[in-house]
Amino acid sequence: MKRAQLQTTSREQTLALAAAFAQALKGGEIIFLRGPIGAGKTVFVKGIARALGLKSSPTSASFSLLKEYKNKHTRLFHIDLFRLEAGEVFNLGFEEMLEDEHAIILAEWPDPIARLLPTDRLEMNFILESKDTRTLELASFGRISDQLLEHLCQVAR
Ligand SMILES: Nc1ncnc2c1ncn2[C@@H]1O[C@H](COP(=O)(O)OP(=O)(O)OP(=O)(O)O)[C@@H](O)[C@H]1O
Ligand SMILES: [Mg+2]
After folding, report:
1. For the chain, which residues make up each domain, given as ranges?
2. Nearest to 30, CA basis, from 135, 134, 148
3. What fold, for 2-156?
């Protein structure tokens, strides 16, 4: 396991960090985004999707829980399971996502689906310091996520 800590002082800086981070994504990465409401988790996900030139595409699941972004080469799933219980993740359309080992998965409020996903994942904890300042605590749990963490630290320098 590796750990690191970064700070951003504006929404734009978080978007720029996400865009730089996106360059390291090849497919198959899993990123958990934790932190309170308004911490910047969705800003970070949208920054990645935009940087990769992905377009949002309709999914069968309830649209607020699972959004799919894609282009010819890349498929990204943005999950937000706020207030969902673990027993409620079945029959919501996650099966297709779980079977695609090349998809990039970014999950806000990930606990209900955590045990269905591989353990090699990057955990990002967004801490609300002030109106525009966020501390990002990173922890990685395997070969793929260790590399991601290192890349994120390099681009943030
Ligand atoms: N440094 C920063 N990084 C990201 N967002 C910031 C920053 N400073 C201010 N903001 C603002 O904070 C808000 C973050 O909202 P966002 O929807 O990303 O939160 P969230 O963590 O996804 O919350 P939720 O749990 O409700 O989904 C936005 O309004 C954004 O403009
Ligand atoms: Mg959000």
Report:
1. 2-156
2. 148
3. Rossmann fold (3.40.50)
